[in-house]
Structures are given as structure tokens and as C-alpha cells.
From TrEMBL:
Domain of life: Eukaryota
PANTHER family with a match to the protein in the record: DNAJ HEAT SHOCK AMINO-TERMINAL DOMAIN PROTEIN-RELATED
Name of the protein in question: DUF3444 domain-containing protein
InterPro entries, A to Z: DUF3444 (IPR024593)
DUF3444 domain: residues covered: 25-231
Taxonomic classification: Eukaryota, Viridiplantae, Streptophyta, Embryophyta, Tracheophyta
Length: 256
């Protein structure tokens, strides 16, 4: 199973370049149950869809694009427009974009266009998301989705924040849709012993918490997931198989 880190980077909120010819393919472990590659095969793409792409920071799917046209399936060739943002004002006054961090939720707009001929730069389809007038898109964590959050996130993060602090994550399940008044309700996920990619919701009542609007940059990226309820024997309720291509390396080691 492979993911390709696209040489894309946010520059003041707008992509400064196109997908480079110097793409880096990374082999990741196979998932424990679900074949996530089937969900991003060449046949899955259609006009007006919104997809997430892997970035060049640590290869996680924090970038978005709008599919304009499927030129051909085999060989794979599609026309896309990248979605980006000039501002992070919808979440308060933190200078997230100007400090060089990638914004993965909030308000986005269609910017530069490109032609893509490599399917493994794409992570997943954003289901239920559509572009509005002028190519405007609102992307927020939705109920039932799994997201990675920055474990040590702080409003004090700057360009000098060490990589080992920035690239430490935990997985959460979104329990309620985003609202400007309350933010997002989440529950932590706990990795199941003996598996690489299976997680279970932390059922402790005090584990559930709200991420308020000013802290929405705590969300790193959505992780494609597959509910295992009723699909696998000998597993507890509320278990998920997570896509290893969107799971940070530190979390991929099988728990003994």
C-alpha cells in the first residue's frame, strides 16, 4: 500500500506551485480489515467532487481540490482546482497560515488549476461536501468522522515550534457537527491491542470534550475510516479500522 507525498505547500494561504514531477512514494502497512485503496481507485473520481490530497510536510492529507473534469480513467488524467484560503479569521486571531501551518478546516476557495496523472496523490473523497458560488467551500469535522488532532497543540505555536512537537498526534471520533457557538464535540480513540489500525472509542464519560471555535486549528486532518460494528467478530463495539496512509508513522506500530 502506497501514498505519494505531493510537492504542494501553502504559501500565505495560496498554493505557490503545482504537483511536482518529483513525487515521493511511501510504502505504508496494510490495514487490518478494510481495503482503503478501493475507495480511491481511478474509477472513483467524478466532476464536482472534493478530494483530500497528501501534503509535503509529513505526508498527511491536509490539502483539498475540486475535480473539474475526468479526462480519462486509464491512463488516469483529471483536471482539478486547488482549494485554499487567505485567512483564518473564522476561528479568531491566531496567525496559523502566516506562520506556515496548513489549514485543514474552515472556509476555502478555488484557486489554481492543475492536471493530475497520478492517483496515489489522493487520500479520500469528502462526502457530502460541495462547492458553492464562486468556488467557496466550508469544510468542518462532521459527526461520525475520524480526525487526527495535534496532541501538543497550543496558541503559542510559531515557525520555530519543533517538528517533534508539531508531529505528535492522537485520534478522535467526531460526535457532533461543528457549530460556531460550541465548536466540535469529540471522543478520544484508543488503539486495540494486537492491531496496527484498529481503534476503539474511549467510553469514559469524562473523556468526551468540546473543541471550541478558537481551537479548531487543533484538527490536523481527517482520517478515512471503516466502522467495524457488525463486520468483525470478537471485537468490542464502536471500533474503527483506520487508513494507514493517513495515520502518522508514530501510531502505526502494532500494540502488543
Amino acid at each position: 500500500m502506497e501514498r505519494t507525498e505531493a510537492a504542494l505547500k501553502a504559501d500565505s494561504g495560496i498554493f505557490s506551485g503545482r504537483v511536482s514531477n518529483k513525487l515521493h512514494s511511501i510504502t505504508v502497512p496494510d490495514p487490518d480489515f478494510h481495503d482503503f485503496d478501493k475507495d480511491r481507485s481511478e474509477e472513483c473520481f467524478a466532476p464536482k467532487q472534493i478530494w483530500a490530497l497528501y501534503d509535503e510536510d509529513d505526508g498527511m492529507p491536509r490539502l483539498y481540490c475540486l475535480i473539474r473534469e475526468v479526462v480519462s480513467v486509464k491512463p488516469f488524467k483529471i483536471l482539478i482546482t486547488y482549494l485554499s484560503s487567505k485567512t483564518d479569521a473564522e476561528f479568531g486571531s491566531m496567525n496559523w497560515i502566516s506562520y506556515g501551518f496548513t489549514k485543514s478546516c474552515g472556509h476555502f476557495r478555488a484557486w489554481n488549476s492543475d492536471t493530475i496523472d497520478k492517483v496515489n496523490v489522493f487520500s479520500h473523497l469528502l462526502r457530502g461536501q460541495k462547492a458553492g458560488r464562486g468556488g467557496c467551500v466550508r469544510i468542518f469535522p462532521r459527526c461520525g468522522e475520524i480526525w487526527a488532532v495535534y496532541r501538543h497543540w497550543s496558541t503559542e505555536w510559531t515557525r520555530s515550534t519543533p517538528d517533534d512537537v508539531r508531529h505528535s498526534y492522537e485520534m478522535v471520533e467526531v460526535l457532533d457537527n461543528y457549530s460556531e457557538d460550541q465548536g466540535v464535540c469529540i471522543a478520544p480513540l484508543i488503539k486495540l491491542s494486537g492491531f496496527k489500525t484498529v481503534y476503539q472509542r474511549d467510553e469514559r464519560q469524562d473523556a468526551i470534550k468540546w473543541v471550541p471555535r478558537p481551537e479548531m486549528f487543533r484538527f490536523s486532518h481527517q482520517v478515512p475510516s471503516w466502522s467495524l460494528d457488525g463486520k468483525a467478530s470478537n471485537l468490542p463495539d464502536n471500533c474503527w479500522d483506520l487508513d494507514p496512509a493517513a495515520t502518522p508513522d508514530e501510531l502505526l506500530q502494532a500494540k502488543g
